[in-house]
Amino acid sequence: MSTKEPSTNRQQQAIQTKKKLLKAGREVFLQSGFQKTTISQIIKTANTGYGTAYVYFKNKNDLFIELMEELMIKFYEIAEKPFEPTTRENAHEMIANQVNLFLSLAVKEREMMQIVKEAIGVSEEVNQEWKNIQERFIKRIAQDIHYAQSQNLAKQNLDPTLVARGWFYSNEMFMWELVDNESHHSMDEIIRHLTIIYTSGLYFQNQF
Amino acid sequence: MSTKEPSTNRQQQAIQTKKKLLKAGREVFLQSGFQKTTISQIIKTANTGYGTAYVYFKNKNDLFIELMEELMIKFYEIAEKPFEPTTRENAHEMIANQVNLFLSLAVKEREMMQIVKEAIGVSEEVNQEWKNIQERFIKRIAQDIHYAQSQNLAKQNLDPTLVARGWFYSNEMFMWELVDNESHHSMDEIIRHLTIIYTSGLYFQNQF
Amino acid sequence: MSTKEPSTNRQQQAIQTKKKLLKAGREVFLQSGFQKTTISQIIKTANTGYGTAYVYFKNKNDLFIELMEELMIKFYEIAEKPFEPTTRENAHEMIANQVNLFLSLAVKEREMMQIVKEAIGVSEEVNQEWKNIQERFIKRIAQDIHYAQSQNLAKQNLDPTLVARGWFYSNEMFMWELVDNESHHSMDEIIRHLTIIYTSGLYFQNQF
Amino acid sequence: MSTKEPSTNRQQQAIQTKKKLLKAGREVFLQSGFQKTTISQIIKTANTGYGTAYVYFKNKNDLFIELMEELMIKFYEIAEKPFEPTTRENAHEMIANQVNLFLSLAVKEREMMQIVKEAIGVSEEVNQEWKNIQERFIKRIAQDIHYAQSQNLAKQNLDPTLVARGWFYSNEMFMWELVDNESHHSMDEIIRHLTIIYTSGLYFQNQF
DNA sequence: CATGAATGAGGCTTCATTCAT
DNA sequence: TATGAATGAAGCCTCATTCAT
């Protein structure tokens, strides 16, 4: 027994140190942005020895990705929401709801998302990580479209993946706009437009 | 007096030097990417004196933006194409055509566009420049939508700017995909799906 | 009392740990070379605690020398071979044989010898260790020369130590060449030439 | 005219700076040895800006090799000495003379040669450089042997390259001994023994 | 207008070693 | 004996930019 418990104590210590570094990292990233942040700053903020950071993280990217992943879990939760509409209206409503959750989360985490956006452009690793997230969303959306097609709710001559991609891209870009605080439109208006175009298109249907 | 003929010669000289630098810049950017390119490299490639580059460009961004602008003119030409459809079908066709031009240009200039993409993420100035281009496209698309609405071809309870934005964003993202060579879909298929969703939506219209 | 049986167990344990470290050391040294190998790597490979290595070895050199000594025992065995030739031809043959053993052993242990060579250049301690080995060889060869002189087989106006030195040095250098895989000559040819020059010289004797 | 001469002035300046760095380099290397010397030390000693050293040298090795090459020129001069003996005695004498020059130079440059020796063991580049020097000597000696064979002064069933190699190696090792101040023999004695063994061998010729 | 030698701030990273348990 | 988290000194190197000519 005494051979195992002491290690737990040590491990606890180690976990604390790592947490301290992550917390410091978040703080510095939020304050200085991704590019300008240096490992030194994080270390100083964390009040850790210089080498210590390198025990836990290979470099700045590595630390940031860990930080980012915490956040992305929340996005994944939204992506995985079930989607089984029974009518066209029902679908419309569910979709609007999903978009709402997605955009709201981004806005709520605005500060961190701004850093994420910067990091995507600068670091190939972070970019990769973001692509994974995109793909996860797109895949899930494609499934939903497939379901709607099988229920004869959606047009069947369209490739679910391609539609999912275009749809997600619009959402993502509006999301970045909101995160940047640069949108001149209200979130509700954005959602309304996105959803209408997506479900019903811009033009009037041909009158038979 | 002495400012007339000799200065013309000098100006000629100056223009030549600048061109030499821009050409070298393009070369190095294409080879090394945006981040890894250094002013020193460009200077060496241009076979110019170290200080000389600073006569013409404030820094790397500055030089790059000049390079980028040459390319963007071509995009503007596409954006400015007239759009005055008379029927729903006509509109559909014209839109598809526009998308085609847009994506084709990007693919044709793929190499430079890849660098542009990288630069957008890294340099705030380049990012700003790209935003200008986006806005120009969006503004023009909004005009077109407005026209379609006035012709009673398009739904009128939608804000042209907002629709234009969403529409452009989808197009842009597929464009980057194609530029990255990472799309698993043919350009024709992409265009077809984009246009259908945009004009007619994904779901069947309510019957009755 | 309690120092008897339990301590034996402990000692057993200790010996095991040390062996584990030495084995890991050999592995890492062979893979990464001397300079690039770090104590940390060895520790990780040995699956031992960080501090543990310091219980047994002062540092990298220390560990390496222990490893090296195992190998050097084999060289000593060759050096100690008896040498009591009765004729010039007999001597020639015995010498050739000795050289053969020496070079063959080095080639057989090539991988480790490469590391040894690197370590000699980098670490003063290892260098010292190698000098001991040289001296042991030279001393033994000097004895042999002395014996040959006493038997009136060898020239007597030559200092055995000096001759031994020059002789050993040639051998050693060819040995390193073979170890480096950089010799363009066969081992047999090398042995033949070494031995002939050593015993009979390069030039024809004076025809009196 | 005024377009060309100013550059000469600048170039002069640059050459001075480089010399300053080389001089500082020599100083620091002699004082601290190869491994312990850092670029920073050299820069401080040279009273130059930090980046300046990197304008002229890629790194420590690079600077050292330049320093080393100055010295090696002197060795090359010895290696290239003509060798066209007419008799066995003549050859013996010329060889002894050559050895004398070689060892004397090394002893005269003892301090620098000690650093060179250290550097050979530590830096692959320096090691390579030294190998070049060895090969140059060996090649030249092989030529000389070939000449002696053609004059029927030397045994003809021996491969000149192989003999040259063995001969040079003995010389080199004694050289390092002298440089290390670790030889217990006088240089004259060393030369005498080396030359005798090389030309006449250790053993008496067969009496027939 | 053109030059190019000189600068130095400042980031990155490694690793031997300690010491409390 | 054994452990392994924590340390921090120290070296490396790049590159934008200046300024005297």
From TrEMBL, chains A, B, C, D:
PANTHER family reported for this sequence: ACREF/ENVCD OPERON REPRESSOR-RELATED, TETR-FAMILY TRANSCRIPTIONAL REGULATOR
Membrane-spanning segments: none
Lineage: Bacteria, Bacillati, Bacillota, Bacilli, Bacillales
Molecular function via GO: DNA binding
Residue ranges annotated for the HTH tetR-type domain, each copy included: 15-75
DNA-binding region in chain numbering: 38-57
Cross-referenced Pfam families: TetR_N
Keyword annotations of the record: DNA-binding, Repressor
Protein name, as recorded: TetR/AcrR family transcriptional regulator
InterPro entries xrefs: Homeodomain-like_sf (IPR009057), HTH-type_Tx_Regulator (IPR050624), HTH_TetR (IPR001647), Tet_transcr_reg_TetR-rel_C_sf (IPR036271)
SUPFAM superfamilies: Homeodomain-like, Tetracyclin repressor-like, C-terminal domain
